[in-house]
Amino acid sequence: MRIMDGHCDALTKLYMNPKLDFDKEEQELDVSYPRLKQAGVKVQCFAIYLSDSIQQPTFEHILQMVDLFHRKIVRHPGMKFIQNVDDWRAVEAGEQIGAILTLEGLDALAGNMTHLRILHHLGVRSIGLTWNYANWAADGVMEPRKSGFTRKGKLMLKELETMGIIVDVSHLSVAAFWELVEVYAKPFIASHSNAQKVCPHPRNLSDDQIKAIIQCQGLIGITFVPYFVDSANLAVPITALLKHIDHVCSLGGERHIGFGSDFDGIEQWMKGLRHVGQYGNIIEALCKNYKETQVEAFLYGNWRNFMLTNLPK
Fold it and tell me: How far apart are CA 88 and CA 82, in angstroms?
């Protein structure tokens, strides 16, 4: 079965540790080319995320990561950069793995809309508006004041809407989420978030948020962060993921479920999900509980439908 994974932080690890090799099965790298091939991943999103260790992130840091994405990932003969629908279809028709470039957190853009447009020209196709805390555009979900968008943040939303960059609300504050619903006219995603009703972590989505994503024809990437899946257990089994899938389905979201592992952005792992090469363990669990057509949709088909509708033509 084909797989699309909506979020990983391999690019950050490659940036922070230049000795790591995307073309090798590195112990420290959850997402590498050999492991993507092992799993049968057809499309992988790679996030530009500037680590907290970079104390004053700038646009230059983002450009360095874009350069790294080209030098270490899409230059690989087995990979292909996806920027539009034609690129996606070319990946489907061939043997290469598709790579989509995303941004997690607007902090380093410093409110400069020209920087935003440059990233669009460079092929960034989805942007997570915040990480956990506040930036110039909006509050993140862990920001104590729990506010929404700034004036400039709302202007930025209009720019994203005009350019067609996909908005990602994972990490966004609840207040900002609902402000976005009011003013943003296009479908949006939560690339790596689970159901709060199943696991009451602030990073997970309430039922009303899940319904809003379904209503806008968006997509939710079920994530493998153990404490977003089951906060009561230290060793979280893959079967715990199914409770989140069942819950989203119960709200009418069967066609709006995908996966967004957050591999390389986590320091704890679920049982049997230590790296992307172990996606087969998820497939095995899914096939015991769902029809084949449902499993194919969760793994790839729902993401495919969303991307073919929302990527540039």
Answer: 6
